[in-house]
Amino acid sequence: MSDQPNDQLAENEDRKGRLAKLFATDILPQSNNWEDTETFLGEVVKVLLKYICEENQRETKILEFHHPTEMKKIIDLTIPDEPQPLEELVKACEQVLSLGVRTGHPRFFNQISCGLDLVSMAGEWLTATANTNMFTYEIAPVYILMEKEVLRKMWEAIGWDPEKSDGIFAPGGAIANLYAMNTARHHMFPRSKHLGNGEIPILCCFTSQDCHYSIKSAASVTGIGSDHCFYIKTDSGGRMIPEALEQQIIRCKNEGMQPFFVCATAGTTVYGAWDPIEKIADICERYRIWLHVDAAWGGGLLLSPEHRYKLSGIERAQSVTWNPHKLMGAILQCSACLFRQDGLLFQCNQMSADYLFQQDKPYDVNYDTGDKAIQCGRHNDTFKLWLMWKSKGMEGYRKQINYLMDLAAYFSERLRATDGYELVVDPPEFLNICFWYIPQKMRGLDLAEKMARLEKIAPKIKAKMMERGTTMVGYQPDKKRPNFFRMIISNQAITRADLDFLIDEIVDIGESLYETM
Predict the structure, then answer these.
(1) Binning pLDDT at 50, 70 and 90, where does residue 366 land?
(2) Between 311 and 377, whose confidence is greater?
(3) pLDDT tens digits for 414-452?
(4) Which residue, 62, 78, 102, sits at the end of a domain?
(5) What is the pLDDT of residues 303-328, one digit of tens each?
(6) pLDDT digits over 258-309, tens only?
(7) Strands 290-295 and 319-322
(8) Which residues in this protein are found as N6-(pyridoxal phosphate)lysine (predicted)?
């Protein structure tokens, strides 16, 4: 029998041991030492593969919780004066991953976190390796065309003409919403780009009281003013009330302001509610106001023929925010701001830096997309989405999204059938399931006392969950209601058994804690 496998193993161990004596200057690009470069990267990949394997095991804890003062003692995060050996860097990588929250765990329900899609992850690895900027075609030819193709699919899903639409990938939905508001202002008052807001009427914008906070933030950043961003009342399900919107628009006009922007939310952060886009679009057309749809969370539902009716009217919007890193499951960050009218982004953001955007290049310079972005350098957010979308196809996404919607219906029904659980919004409209758990000894109390005690239940249960590390679901403060759990079903790895486990775990923790509250 040949000893070659044993010899190879010994050689690998020897190469690994050398990392204790090697530094970053001993590997590429500073040293033409491929052998040790390969060994170092191989050890890092081992750490990543181990983490991925453990994260997808249900018996693995979601987190090992430590208070900040304790965490500082466990891990050394200081930047040293002297270089550290490569072996220490590998150990640091492993420790950092082991001490973080495993947001890809099938029983992590705390945020709009869609787990870890391995194909998308592969795309992100490849993107990081290429390390290419996205400002001009000559620097990123394939990526520019890739972005255009991905945007085309998104325009078509919305219902726009892809030959007349535009868009840009942005570092998060908040920045995408900022793109939309800034472009809307430019569309109505182009001189504001050069002269600011002092030479134009006092602008105001509108959004629901359950919208994402980034709309008010965008009003602040653009100089419109957060006080000129008006929150519109919502109904019991969290949907904007169109009549209240129209009344506020009229009120603002009577006070001498210029309404210019309305944001309808498609899938609110807390309740997963859908603003009535058709009715809001009617109002916007009547008063000649830009309609933006923040579909950061709910945009992925456009890929399900069975459920896309919830976004009926979205094709009437002038702009749409859509975050594929949410419902579609792409690796963070992956957010797009989409525009029905081509050319507006260039007009709004173009600064014509002649060291980048020369007009006499030997190709069609319309493919130099960097000048329509607020930022200069731009990360390639499309590779991971493009690769993942190819892996699933349109039919794969249809099945994935329908599966999650079916799980939400199943979980809601299980809550209704289990003593002690009450749904805050029944039926839930999306994958956000908001509910209370009422311990047995509280169920006979009068309403006022029950509500007062219920305020403390969810935080206490959440704290115990973090201590156990077996599952995690967030709770939500609300001015109108006691704290309730906000469950998000968005990870494609979730099963009915995971949902059953959560229900039983909350009951177990809730009953054991009530005596101490």
Answers:
(1) confident
(2) 311
(3) 999 999 999 999 999 999 999 999 999 888 888 888 888
(4) 102
(5) 999 999 999 999 999 999 999 999 99
(6) 999 999 999 999 999 999 999 999 999 999 999 999 999 999 999 999 999 9
(7) parallel
(8) 326
CA distance 67 to 53: 26
pTM: 0.92
- The CATH code of the domain that includes 306 is 3.40.640.10
Contact 107, 62 (CB under 8 A): yes
The answer to whether residues 347 and 179 touch, using CB atoms and an 8 Å cutoff, is no
Residue 161 has pLDDT above 50, yes or no: yes
Asked if 505 and 441 sit in the same domain, the reply is yes
In a domain, 36, yes or no: yes
pLDDT tens digits for 379-395? 888 999 999 999 999 99
326 & 395 share domain? no
Q: What pLDDT is stored for residue 1 in this prediction?
A: 45
- What value does the mean pLDDT of the chain take? 91
- Based on the structure, what is the number of domains in the chain? 3
- Tell me how far apart the alpha carbons of residues 273 and 283 are, in angstroms, rounded to a whole number: 20
In this structure, the answer to whether residues 333 and 195 fall within a common structural domain is yes
Q: In one letter, which amino acid is 289?
A: I
Please state the three-class secondary structure of 158-227 as a single string: HCCCCCCCEEEEECCHHHHHHHHHHHHHHHHCCCHHHHCHHHCCCEEEEEECCCCCHHHHHHHHCCCCHH
Residue 118 lies in a domain: no
Q: How many residues does the chain have?
A: 517
Q: How many CB atoms lie within 10 A of CB 449?
A: 10
Q: Could you tell me if 337 and 412 lie in one domain?
A: no
Q: What is the pLDDT of residue 9?
A: 64
Paired residues of 295 in beta bridges: 322
- Asked if residue 86 and residue 181 are part of one domain, the reply reads no
Whether residue 138 lies inside any domain: the answer is: no
Give the up-direction half-sphere exposure of residue 420: CA atoms within 13 A in the CB hemisphere. Answer: 19
Q: Distance between CA atoms of 350 and 373, rounded to whole angstroms?
A: 8
What's the CA gap between 324 and 114, in Å, rounded?
10
Three-state SS letters, 411-458: HHHHHHHCCCEEECCCCCCCCEEEEEECCHHHCCCCHHHHHHHHHHHH
Answer whether residue 108 is part of any domain.
no
Are residues 67 and 172 located together in one domain of the fold? Answer: no
- What's the confidence (pLDDT) of residue 136? 82
For residues 465 and 470, what is the distance between their CA atoms, to the nearest angstrom? 7
Distance of alpha carbon 190 from the chain centroid? 31
What confidence score (pLDDT) does residue 516 get? 61
Residue 359: pLDDT above 80? no
Report which DSSP code applies to 354. T
Domain that holds residue 307: 165-341
